[in-house]
Amino acid sequence: MALVNLWRKVTLRERDRAHPSGEPIVEVSRVSMRYDRVVALEDVSFTVETGERIAIVGPNGAGKSTLLKIIAGVLTPTTGSVRIYGRGPGGHLCIAYIPQRNQVDWNFPLTVADVVMMGRIGKMGLLRHPGPRDWAIVRRALEQVGIADLADRPIRALSGGQQQRMFIARALAQEAELLLMDEPFTGLDRPAQEGILEILEHLRRQGVTILLATHDLEQAASHFDRVLLLNRRLIAFGPPDAVLTPGALRAAYGGHLRLIPVEGELVAVGDTCCEGG
Ligand code: ADP
């Protein structure tokens, strides 16, 4: 009898998780977020379709991290709602959230393979030991991001680019459909950034939807389908050309961004940036 109940629970849960066709992968409706006295987000609404790559840009304190955490289900908005394929973000195995690197305890005694295996927990259950299939998936994920040789390395001994690759491998092991990345390029040199962008291009071909917060407007313009310009409120959302206009940038950055004409184009120069950048 107990087994039948367990079977029922599992099949019902699986049915719950099936993604209805026609629903957007992300639907953010009138989300506001207040921390004590700070209003981090105000009345933000937008939808994202499966397979899109979205860059979230805006000045420091614009609410980019808060928005990603709310979509990931890590934070609950003060008002408004987030739907992932029509359901709240809790319990979705398809969401992978990669926090800013400075929010991770890199001294924790784990190897790269341990962290990537964590991506399998949702699929195999907390109490089960990883089987040969799980290890094969972890190995394949590490190969896909080019760090198979680092599997046994302690996470404290990784470079910034390798840390990002490890987290992307964890998302691959999880078989994530929605990847949320919070400033993955901060503090990385150009070759490391290019390496991550190449992997993201590969994920695009696999149909993975990506929402990524970044300070780099040029990268947002050249590598993403749509740009979401945020400063507590949603200032603009659409194709890069339509969003990264002088008016919208001024509205988002105010005096912290200057637009300088260079060879017939306007170049945005900011005075706020990111840690290490
Ligand atoms: P961004 O990622 O664009 O820099 P954040 O989402 O980190 O912006 O922060 C938005 C605003 O919310 C900022 O004013 C920040 O100081 C505030 N904030 C973020 N997290 C907290 C928190 N845990 N407690 C209080 N205020 C916070």
Your description of this structure?
This protein has ten helices and eleven strands. A hairpin with a 2-residue loop joins β10 (257-262) and β11. It starts with a helix and ends in a 7-residue tail after the last strand. It is globular, with a radius of gyration of 20 Å. The strands form three sheets. Strands 5-6-7-3-8-9 form a six-stranded mixed sheet, with helices on both faces. α5 crosses α6. It is an alpha/beta fold. It has helices spanning 2-17, 64-72, 112-118, 121-124, 132-144, 160-173, 190-205, 217-223, 240-243, 246-253; strands at residues 26-35, 38-48, 53-57, 79-84, 95-98, 178-182, 209-213, 226-231, 233-238, 257-262, 265-270. It has a single domain (3-16, 50-73, 89-229, 236-270), classed as P-loop containing nucleotide triphosphate hydrolases (Rossmann fold, 3-Layer(aba) Sandwich), CATH 3.40.50.300. Helix content is 35%, strand content 25%. The site of adenosine-5'-diphosphate (ADP) has 12 residues, from β2 and α2.
